[in-house]
Amino acid sequence: MEHMIHPFSELFEQLGLDASHKGIEHFLQQHKLPPEMELVNAPFWNNAQATFLKEGLQEDSDWAEVIDQLNASLR
After folding, report:
1. Cβ atoms 74, 29 nearer than 8 A
2. How many domains does the chain have?
3. How many CB atoms sit inside 10 A of residue 54's CB?
4. What's the pTM?
């Protein structure tokens, strides 16, 4: 079974964040993670967002690739 590849903006929509180009750029500029912090433990996620990200990675869902992209972009 093939995984669907979601656009970055769709992940932002799923997380309830501004998914416009400017909104994504602003979020990435304002939220940086130290190398030792796991993405799901970032202080700026609410419980639902953190759970979605954690489950997406643990289950290797079709969101996993774009979640990895988000993780890299926040470093």
Report:
1. no
2. 1
3. 16
4. 0.88
